[in-house]
Amino acid sequence: MKLFTRKVLTVALASTFAISLTACGGTTNTDGKDSAKTQSEPAKETVKKEPVTVSYLAVTSQLNYGGIKDLIAAWEKKTGNKVDIQAIQDDQYDNLVKAKLAGGGDLDIFFGAYQKYDVANQLLQISGEGFESRLNDVALQSMKYTDGKIYAFPAPMGLATWGAFYNKQVFKDLGLSVPKTMDDFNKDLAAIKAKGITPLYFSAKDGWTMLQHRNAVNGIVGGTDSSIWDKLNKNQIQWKDVPAFVDQYKQVEDWVKQGYINKDLTATYDQQQQALVDGKAAIVIQGSFIDSELMKKKADAQIGFFPLPNKDGSEKLALGGATQVFIAKNSKHAEAAKDLLRYLSDKEQVKSYLEKSPGISPFKDVDVSDKLSPAFKEIQAVVSAGNIARHGDDAYVVPLPYDELVAAYTELLAGRITADQFVQKHGDMYVKNAKIAKIPGF
């Protein structure tokens, strides 16, 4: 996910609304001429709209962060409206939303990315909202569609990034330092394996957790040459023509051969977290959202972070844009939905969310740096140094072939295909999706 990108990826809220109707009474002469009022003007009457129920479709995992359910409950109490929170499994989410949009089903608020939808015909245009002046440049740019208009509210989540979360105690006990290059990284993995500890722990029970490695690779791809995304979008080059991309998957193939990856690929996300905090695994490649989950597992766990190393040792992080929250263009409760999302993106609510699930704030007026964990402070240091790259899902126009990509990743990690075969499959599945989406040049 920004995933999803993550990118991957939570929101919905707003405030109260009511309309006032005024009536004034008077008399009229039978000949049509106005006469003086014979009675005093009645008091103005305020007629409140009946409470409504706003549908809010979220990926199941999103609802675990930032106390989002409590924030929504506060809006319900404030307005009298209700929110029908529908938690959808990650691998079913996109298809369900698309089906509702295509079939005219009851749909108000949902998440996603512009390239997944017929923007002008399916999403409500909301340009001119107050949040625009509050977002930092990266976040604001991510909210704009190709026509320059905005069709999404920003979720209160922190900006996501991806890389290697590691157990500092394991590294300290083995006398290891944070790797900068691929060679350094592989030497560390060999030393960790020699001590009977799992060097890298992948969770493949749910496909989205496995794809966080792909999100980390995206930062290296864009960081090497930002024009790569434009060339890929125009089909001027293929994925196999991007050395930084190919190198990363050749490395994965080698990890499998060397036994650096856990043997049980059916491990759950929960098991992955537990293995890391317990020191049974040294490193997991995940999204920044995992940090708060690790602290819940073991508050005194010593967790650090470093960007996924590349060949030359330059640090690059893929920084995701603000998480986009949409309102269906045919929503029956568009005003209430906007009110809900305004509420969630208010300074107070954003601060509350980020204090519970700390991250890189997309809002200039919200600073939670004093709440950051040691791992997040290391992420912030890379970001502050400017060593960031645009996440591929924000730059690449071809829709993500989720199911096919999960299948290919599983085959690669299981050692059933080589890196070259993976890269070819990866390129083919994106070309197929580009043709289905009728993207020019494919």
UniProtKB/TrEMBL annotation:
Known InterPro entries for this protein? Bact_solute-bd_prot1 (IPR050490), SBP (IPR006059)
The name this protein carries in UniProt is Extracellular solute-binding protein
Q: Does the keyword Signal apply?
A: yes
Keyword Signal annotated:
yes
* UniProt xrefs under Pfam families: SBP_bac_1 (PF01547)
What keywords does the record list, in alphabetical order?
Answer: Signal
Q: Which SUPFAM superfamilies match?
A: Periplasmic binding protein-like II
Q: Give the domain of life.
A: Bacteria
Report the leader peptide range: 1-23
List the lineage, top down. Bacteria, Bacillati, Bacillota, Bacilli, Bacillales
